[in-house]
Amino acid sequence: MRPVQPVPTLSPDSRHRRKRHPLHRRGTLALAALPPLAAGVIWAVTAGPASGAPEPPAAAAGPPAPALAGSPRLYTPLANPDAYKQALELGQAGGRLGKDAIRIIGMVRTPHAVWYGDQTPAAVEKDARAVTRDADVDGSMPVFALYNIPGRDCSHYSAGGASNTAEYKAWIDGVAKGIGKRDALVVLEPDSLALLPSECGQGNEKEKTDARYEEVNYAVSTLAALRNTRVYLDTGHAGWHDVASIVPRLVKGGIKNATGFYTNASNYQTDEANSWYGKLISSCLAHVDAGGKAEDCPSQKDPKAEAQAWIAENVTTAPGRMKHFVTDTSRNGKGPWSPPADKYTDPQDWCNPPGRGLGVRPTTRTGDPLHDAKLWIKTPGESDGLCLRGTPGPKDPERGTVDPKAGDWFPDQALELVRLANPPLLPPGHAGESGGAEPEDASAGSGIAEGEPDPGR
């Protein structure tokens, strides 16, 4: 069973540039029909993400780039156009649905990753250059999720990617040329290490797995050589691989040349589970780097006190010299879904699970010296794919509908995510909004991107 399903947002280059959205062509007549607050917020967001005073940019350094310095402001690309369409329709309905429109807008105004995959080298170079230049204008740092590895996802829901190693290397070269000397954070190839070709059962497994490691190493060395690019490698998530299982893959994948690793991409594990898993992996990597064995490292399933005691005894490396990590908080506000017992032969708990909520807003202020950032790697509101849960389909039996294909906008799921967000998307005390976890920084409770002005003020 595949515990995680990252989904690319394969968007045209115009999706990430500061251009007037098509909703503007409807003019003020369309917005005049909306409740005043919803109209104002929708007008503000379709003008493009607001830009506030930029925070200090990440420090420049040679490869591998150091952990994030200061509090770099994260980049907010324009959202899936269907998100704007949903917000407009909700705003026109008014009432509670009008509040949902504001929540959808809060979600799409939040910094999230720009996904690339399946383009030609020339196209991805052009797209990456456009985004990094755009981010430079408002003093922010883009997060790129690169998803073009040959044989990605075992050719299942998110099948695609480059045809062979040579084609992939040319594609990575295009990404590197597009980024150039500008700031960028790269989440490299979700599932590339957590789901190796040797686990796909499709033949030629050793040859394909050897090629996978060659491809990941090439991408790391090429992108980490860029002066201001930080590269993080795949670990799946805390509910999947044990620490002793994923660490050797990281080592073989070139973690020594990377800034660090990421966990929980497109999944739902809690912040506590993600942070602990990250600390254990980082500690195990330091142990291995000092000559120890990964098999001796504690598991995330072990009693925490015992694992802490092992770290204290076996890891003496300073945090600044250890491998850092970032986590995906885009959809983990309610934690992972627990499928009904014995109901499905394959519950697919990673695939459009019901009743989930947005998690903590992206931030580089985590309070943990090893934890560089909490990010929205997955684009919340976009489908994980056609979820059948072991049934013949075509409907998702848990939802009673045919789920959109991977990467398409999923209005029902988007509503769940914004309504169940933890912390809430609307400020505490707003009509119809219940309490929740306190935001980690001042930008977090409102859904407004870090460092941006609130358009309602």
TrEMBL record:
<feature type="binding site">
    <location>
        <position position="115"/>
    </location>
    <ligand>
        <name>substrate</name>
    </ligand>
</feature>
<keyword id="KW-0624">Polysaccharide degradation</keyword>
<keyword id="KW-0326">Glycosidase</keyword>
<keyword id="KW-0732">Signal</keyword>
<comment type="similarity">
    <text>Belongs to the glycosyl hydrolase family 6.</text>
</comment>
<feature type="binding site">
    <location>
        <position position="237"/>
    </location>
    <ligand>
        <name>substrate</name>
    </ligand>
</feature>
<feature type="region of interest" description="Disordered">
    <location>
        <begin position="421"/>
        <end position="457"/>
    </location>
</feature>
<feature type="binding site">
    <location>
        <position position="240"/>
    </location>
    <ligand>
        <name>substrate</name>
    </ligand>
</feature>
<feature type="active site" description="Proton acceptor">
    <location>
        <position position="384"/>
    </location>
</feature>
<dbReference type="InterPro" id="IPR016288">
    <property type="entry name" value="Beta_cellobiohydrolase"/>
</dbReference>
<protein>
    <recommendedName>
        <fullName>Glucanase</fullName>
        <ecNumber>3.2.1.-</ecNumber>
    </recommendedName>
</protein>
<dbReference type="GO" id="GO:0004553">
    <property type="term" value="F:hydrolase activity, hydrolyzing O-glycosyl compounds"/>
</dbReference>
<feature type="binding site">
    <location>
        <position position="350"/>
    </location>
    <ligand>
        <name>substrate</name>
    </ligand>
</feature>
<keyword id="KW-0136">Cellulose degradation</keyword>
<feature type="region of interest" description="Disordered">
    <location>
        <begin position="381"/>
        <end position="408"/>
    </location>
</feature>
<feature type="binding site">
    <location>
        <position position="267"/>
    </location>
    <ligand>
        <name>substrate</name>
    </ligand>
</feature>
<feature type="region of interest" description="Disordered">
    <location>
        <begin position="1"/>
        <end position="27"/>
    </location>
</feature>
<keyword id="KW-0119">Carbohydrate metabolism</keyword>
<feature type="binding site">
    <location>
        <position position="378"/>
    </location>
    <ligand>
        <name>substrate</name>
    </ligand>
</feature>
<keyword id="KW-0378">Hydrolase</keyword>
<dbReference type="InterPro" id="IPR036434">
    <property type="entry name" value="Beta_cellobiohydrolase_sf"/>
</dbReference>
<dbReference type="InterPro" id="IPR001524">
    <property type="entry name" value="Glyco_hydro_6_CS"/>
</dbReference>
<feature type="region of interest" description="Disordered">
    <location>
        <begin position="327"/>
        <end position="363"/>
    </location>
</feature>
<keyword id="KW-1015">Disulfide bond</keyword>
<feature type="compositionally biased region" description="Basic residues">
    <location>
        <begin position="15"/>
        <end position="27"/>
    </location>
</feature>
<feature type="compositionally biased region" description="Basic and acidic residues">
    <location>
        <begin position="395"/>
        <end position="406"/>
    </location>
</feature>
<dbReference type="Pfam" id="PF01341">
    <property type="entry name" value="Glyco_hydro_6"/>
</dbReference>
<dbReference type="GO" id="GO:0030245">
    <property type="term" value="P:cellulose catabolic process"/>
</dbReference>
<feature type="active site" description="Proton donor">
    <location>
        <position position="191"/>
    </location>
</feature>
<feature type="binding site">
    <location>
        <position position="382"/>
    </location>
    <ligand>
        <name>substrate</name>
    </ligand>
</feature>
